[in-house]
Amino acid sequence: MRCVVWALGLVVLLAAPTAAADWGQIKPAVTTQADVRARYGAPTRETAQKIEGYDSLQWAYEGSQAPAGIAKMIVDFGLLTPSGYKKEVVRTFRLEPKHDIFNRKLVVDGWGPPSRVGKEGDLEFFLYEEGLLVYFGPDEKDVTVMIFTRPQKLPPAAGPLPQR
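Now predict its structure.
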């Protein structure tokens, strides 16, 4: 009986769609402007922009309006989906944590081993298929930026990612 339950659980796990990486109750492609405003209040700054011909918004939370432990949070709204453009939905969001808030161990403990590891100049980064890109500072320990997106299908690894 245990084998049947285990096999069924494995089938369900493999059949389930990959979940997007999230943080602070924000999940790209799911969370809306109303959700973000309810959780974090009005942004410090709101910027209207055009992305690929679509109207979109960017909200910035800085200083005392940023979440605890975060120097700046930037949320981009407007997502093109197979069913059309969703102006109110989070496309991506970016966290710039304060010093000593996120480190390599916390990232791996929270999101698991990365799908890929790479370098951009002198900075190392982790890339997760679930939709997370993490940049580490020069000490390769402290996190400087975390960018959350929809899940990203990565091609098979053929060695290290190319540098830009």
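The beta strands are 45-51, 54-62, 70-81, 84-97, 116-120, 123-128, 132-136, 143-148.
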